User: Which sequence fits this backbone?
């Protein structure tokens, strides 16, 4: 599949002319429950460099509201655009909660890796060890590592239409027959991560949502992140927009682990900042974050880890688009196992996420200490998200390829 660039795609010169490197260095740290403070000049320059990318994107795809959060050298800033609901015209602000879709999968992988670091499970284990109903089934030939890297043997993108809840999902997994041996191909899959979440919760002897809140959200200071938005936060919960209607995600089989998280841009940036610099985290959570960044299987130029997708950095826009192509998400791709160890050269990590009314994109480059979160209350094309993220990255840390 060939991607056509957005008409508003900007040259590196256009992107950089509004960005002042000295100003970026003045962005203050994002404290718990507060946005950063900057000098007026540096804030204006940074805002301008983001505006020239985000405003044309919103206009082209009729996106009602967006939030962009940046982490630069450990310092953070959040930029809000548009409205969180067309009917009320309430503006997007720092408290606005977005659905992040499949970016939730990165949290599920982190929780599973945390369980391993805590001695509750091993990623080489098979799911039947923790979900007794699957003992001896075809899916039990795969490991938890295979589930977290979409290499279990051909689990589909979605559960079939007749699967309505977690009980149906378990019955489906009992009957499922593989198309390939575990570890031989990658096929992006909600059921794969859903089962990983179920096995992790069983191993930790708790409810998935409560485990996520206690072991991941709380230690990272993510006080505005939810699997189920509480009544007191509903006023901040944006409405998604789809085909002229305001929508929110519906419950589905194993949805908590696969696409269930709702969060603010600032909270999601805290998760990204933990990826950029996990050293200050308690040992089990630090090891969990590090585990999700270790590559496991090569798919073309992209390496799939236990969670994050990664690319060599610096890289071209075309390579990043290719690694997020429809063929990568919807087709089975042969894989090559890579040494399971931290990369010795710089890497870019990314993940997209969607629900019916929301679109999300996250990318970060630890070597540059840059993280980017882009949230929207409309699901717009993935290539456009990748182009926007790449353009922001180039405005902050121009690559030598241009």
Assistant:
């Amino acid at each position: 599949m060939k991607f056509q660039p957005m008409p508003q795609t900007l040259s590196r010169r256009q992107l950089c002319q509004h960005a002042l490197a000295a100003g970026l260095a003045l962005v203050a740290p994002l404290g718990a429950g507060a946005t950063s403070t900057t000098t007026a000049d540096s804030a204006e320059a940074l805002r301008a460099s983001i505006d020239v990318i985000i405003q044309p994107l919103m206009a082209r795809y009729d996106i009602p509201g967006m939030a962009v959060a940046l982490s630069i050298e450990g310092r953070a800033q959040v930029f809000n655009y548009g409205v969180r609901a067309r009917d009320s015209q309430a503006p997007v602000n720092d408290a606005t909660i977005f659905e992040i879709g499949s970016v939730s999968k990165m949290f599920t992988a982190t929780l599973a890796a945390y369980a391993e670091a805590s001695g509750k499970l091993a990623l080489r284990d098979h799911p039947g060890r923790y979900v007794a109903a699957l003992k001896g089934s075809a899916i039990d030939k795969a490991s938890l590592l295979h589930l977290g890297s979409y290499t279990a043997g051909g689990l589909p993108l979605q559960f079939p239409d007749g699967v309505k809840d977690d009980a149906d999902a378990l019955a489906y997994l009992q009957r499922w027959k593989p198309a390939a041996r575990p570890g031989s191909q990658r096929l992006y899959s909600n059921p794969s991560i859903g089962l990983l979440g179920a096995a992790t919760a069983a191993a930790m002897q708790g409810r998935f949502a409560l485990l996520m809140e206690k072991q991941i959200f709380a230690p990272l200071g993510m006080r505005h992140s939810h699997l189920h938005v509480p009544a007191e936060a509903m006023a901040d919960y944006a409405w998604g927009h789809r085909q002229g209607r305001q929508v929110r995600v519906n419950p589905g089989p194993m949805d908590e682990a696969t696409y269930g998280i709702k969060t603010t841009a600032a909270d999601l940036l805290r998760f990204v900042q933990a990826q950029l610099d996990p050293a200050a985290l308690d040992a089990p959570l630090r090891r969990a974050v590090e585990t999700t960044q270790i590559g496991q299987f090569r798919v073309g130029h992209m390496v799939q880890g236990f969670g994050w997708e990664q690319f060599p950095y610096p890289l071209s826009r075309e390579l990043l688009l290719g690694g997020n192509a429809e063929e990568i998400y919807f087709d089975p791709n042969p894989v090559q196992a890579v040494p399971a160890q931290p990369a010795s050269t710089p890497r870019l990590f990314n993940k997209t996420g969607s629900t019916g009314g929301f679109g999300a994109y996250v990318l970060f480059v630890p070597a540059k200490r840059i993280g980017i979160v882009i949230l929207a209350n409309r699901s717009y094309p993935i290539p456009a998200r990748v182009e926007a993220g790449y353009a922001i990255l180039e405005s902050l840390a121009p690559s030598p390829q241009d």
